[in-house]
Amino acid sequence: MFKALADEGRRQLLDALRERNGQSLQELCELLPDLTRQGVTKHLRILEDANLVVTVKRGRHKLHYLNPVPINEIAERWLSNYERDKLRALSALKAALEES
Amino acid sequence: MFKALADEGRRQLLDALRERNGQSLQELCELLPDLTRQGVTKHLRILEDANLVVTVKRGRHKLHYLNPVPINEIAERWLSNYERDKLRALSALKAALEES
DNA sequence: ACAATAGGCAACTAAAAGGTTGCCTGTCAA
DNA sequence: TTGACAGGCAACCTTTTAGTTGCCTATTGT
């Protein structure tokens, strides 16, 4: 999941779906002109495995939808832990720097 | 930055520093017993490059401090974009699934 | 002073990620 | 019904990343 987010191209794909949900592979390929169709497919596959994107086959098109649930979980579970300790960490950092 | 977070070992290091800030390399090595000292060093280097960890040399020890600022930025800038669209994406997803 | 401790640097290896090409399958429209 | 379009699959190559080993430097305690 963090790994899926660790690639700029994949983040761009997510951004594209955020702008317009339900795009086909073709459409998404136009957004990453430096990659071949298969390259984009692989990235979408990773996003799908990470459950960040959900697909629906409609005829000969495969539509891609953003799944907001897991990214929400990350925000709540992992990042909030660090939010909670933000001020404490900052003051410890400051103290350590001043002491030297 | 996302890349730095994309490794379980590095996340463990961050967690360790969150529990107790200002640990030395030695101490952090004990937390990842499967890795050699140099392995841990490399991970810490990556966290440092991503500005997630700040270090202070004190005598022959190098103390590692969690830097809460960038992780906070990620939470605010990137994730909040997706938070904002959470409900919209969910309903689009639902509609697409029902239509098929 | 010097042995032990804490860490840094560089070269090397192994594994994983990113990307491509070639070909195959299914669907639609004329 | 057949040609064009949308996509899938598998093999392959290249680059990056993760990890190791070996050796070097600096600090500290006795």
Task: Give descriptors for this structure.
100 residues, homodimer, 6 helices, 2 domains, elongated, Arc Repressor Mutant, subunit A, 67% helix, alpha+beta, three-stranded antiparallel beta sheet, DNA-binding
Note down, in words, how this protein is organized.
Chain A is of the alpha+beta class and 100 residues long. The first copy, chain A, folds into 2 domains: 1-66, Orthogonal Bundle (Arc Repressor Mutant, subunit A); 68-100. Chain A is built from 6 helices and 3 strands, in the order ααβααββαα. Chain A has a 3-stranded antiparallel β-sheet. In chain A, β2 and β3 (61-66) form a beta hairpin. Chain A is elongated and about 65 Å long. The relative contact order of chain A is 0.13. The model of chain A has no long low-confidence stretch (mean pLDDT 92). Chain A binds chain B through residues 2-3, 5-7, 11, 14, 18, 21-22, 54, 56-58, 63, 65-69, 71-72, 74-75, 79, 81-83, 85-86, 88-90, 92-93, 96-97, 99-100, and chain B through 2-3, 5-7, 11, 14, 18, 21-22, 54, 56-58, 63, 65-69, 71-72, 74-75, 79, 81-83, 85-86, 88-90, 92-93, 96-97, 99-100. Chain A binds a DNA duplex (30 and 30 nucleotides) through α4.
